[in-house]
């Protein structure tokens, strides 16, 4: 990755009829970067990609490619490839012809075309299907053809719209690794759209979390997971979902239902808190649960449910006030359902959000 910005969205909005779909999107993508856009269905991911590809025009704002207004660049000059969510294959062309088509349009020489196509057919395991029509392929095979059609172009910017969503779970991990290997080899700039958080975390140099047509946070997977800007981001990433508790801040201490959750904390002191009511976020793997009470483990709970995943156990703990939290333990503690236990939170992992705005108080 170099620091050169190859793509920039400046205050981009998009309305369909009177509905505002994209609300002011600002984004800079560097040369060779792998950027993942992650968000729930309907949040505007495909719309954003289509605007970058030049298939839709922003209602307001600008898209710059290599510093040039994208609306002033012809589609031939654009040097962007896109893999569509719905494949968009030509139904009357064979797999080979589908893959070859854009190379012909771009007047790539026959020898070079053949070389690239053989490579792609091999990589995507499509050699045996080269003469088939799209109608004679499974969903996963069609998706691989769509992927290959984007890959053969060797374009500078490669846009992928949920390229793996219809591929079997077993094949998906392999395909994901191939996309990553491809990126390492070719250093293309990639914008990859998905609603799958695991895929996003695995692939992205940076992840842009989108909700309601707005980028909520754009950062490395590590920062997104450990330092989310707001509660939406915190809850969107991580399974099981981050636990939240209503807590009260008072004179240097945090209370949950009259019991101290956190005191003598340097972090709390540095936050200059004034508001009293806060929302505490703690991920299940950062909850410590034991059978015995200690100086550090003194909050009490009852085990409501245990799910054993083999590699780890997921506990649902019921607390006072009818609240419940989930905890993940990797060691076998011989817990049983209904048992009374003690718990605490790893102090450095506690997140605190403003009760009203749900913004992370440390960002
Ligand atoms: P995503 O890809 O994140 O699931 P989309 O970008 O496809 O979301 O769609 C965002 C919103 O815009 C949705 O509510 C969708 O119904 C709407 N939308 C998308 N394309 C059109 C269109 N051509 N006309 C009207 N509404 C559209
Ligand atoms: Mg979409």
From TrEMBL:
Domain ABC transporter, by residue range, is: 7-237
Query: Which residues belong to the signal peptide in this entry?
Result: none
Question: What InterPro entries does the record tag this protein with?
Answer: AAA+_ATPase (IPR003593), ABC_transporter-like_ATP-bd (IPR003439), ABC_transporter-like_CS (IPR017871), ABC_transpr_MalK/UgpC-like (IPR047641), Mo/tungstate-bd_C_term_dom (IPR008995), NA-bd_OB-fold (IPR012340), P-loop_NTPase (IPR027417), Transp-assoc_OB_typ2 (IPR013611)
Keywords attached to this Swiss-Prot or TrEMBL record, sorted alphabetically, are:
ATP-binding, Nucleotide-binding, Translocase, Transport
Lineage: superkingdom = Bacteria
Question: Which GO terms fall under molecular function for this chain's record?
Answer: ABC-type transporter activity; ATP binding; ATP hydrolysis activity
Q: What is this protein called?
A: Sugar ABC transporter ATP-binding protein
Species, as recorded: Liquorilactobacillus hordei
């Amino acid at each position: 990755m170099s620091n050169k910005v190859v793509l920039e969205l400046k205050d981009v909005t998009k309305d369909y009829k009177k509905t505002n779909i994209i609300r002011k999107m600002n984004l800079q993508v560097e040369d060779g970067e792998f950027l993942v856009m992650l968000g729930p269905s309907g949040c505007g991911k495909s719309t954003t990609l289509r605007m970058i590809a030049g298939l839709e025009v922003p209602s307001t704002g600008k898209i710059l490619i290599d510093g040039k207004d994208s609306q002033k660049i012809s589609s031939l000059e654009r040097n962007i490839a896109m893999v569509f969510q719905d494949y968009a294959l030509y139904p009357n062309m064979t797999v080979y012809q589908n893959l070859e088509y854009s190379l012909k349009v771009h007047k790539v020489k026959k020898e070079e075309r053949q070389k690239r196509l053989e490579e792609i057919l091999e990589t995507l395991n499509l050699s045996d299907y080269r003469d088939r029509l799209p109608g004679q392929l499974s969903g996963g095979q069609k998706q691989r053809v769509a992927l290959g059609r984007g890959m053969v172009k060797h374009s500078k910017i490669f846009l992928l719209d949920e390229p793996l969503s219809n591929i079997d779970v077993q094949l998906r991990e392999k395909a994901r690794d191939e996309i990553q290997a491809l990126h390492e080899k070719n250093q293309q700039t990639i914008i990859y759209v998905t609603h799958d958080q695991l895929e996003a975390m695995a692939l992205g140099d940076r992840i842009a979390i989108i909700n309601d047509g707005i980028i909520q946070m754009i950062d490395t997977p590590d920062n997104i997971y450990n330092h989310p800007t707001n509660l939406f981001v915190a809850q969107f990433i991580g399974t099981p979902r981050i636990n939240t508790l209503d807590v009260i801040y008072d004179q240097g201490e945090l209370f949950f239902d009259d019991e101290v959750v956190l005191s003598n904390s340097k972090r709390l002191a540095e936050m200059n808190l004034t508001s009293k009511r806060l929302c505490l976020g703690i991920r299940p793997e950062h909850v410590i649960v034991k059978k015995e009470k200690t100086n550090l483990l003194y909050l009490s709970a009852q085990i409501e449910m245990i799910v054993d995943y083999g590699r780890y156990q997921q506990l649902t703990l019921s607390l006072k006030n009818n609240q419940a939290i989930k905890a993940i333990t990797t060691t076998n503690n011989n817990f049983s359902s209904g048992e009374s236990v003690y718990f605490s939170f790893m102090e450095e992992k506690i997140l605190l959000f403003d009760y009203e705005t749900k913004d992370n108080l440390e960002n």
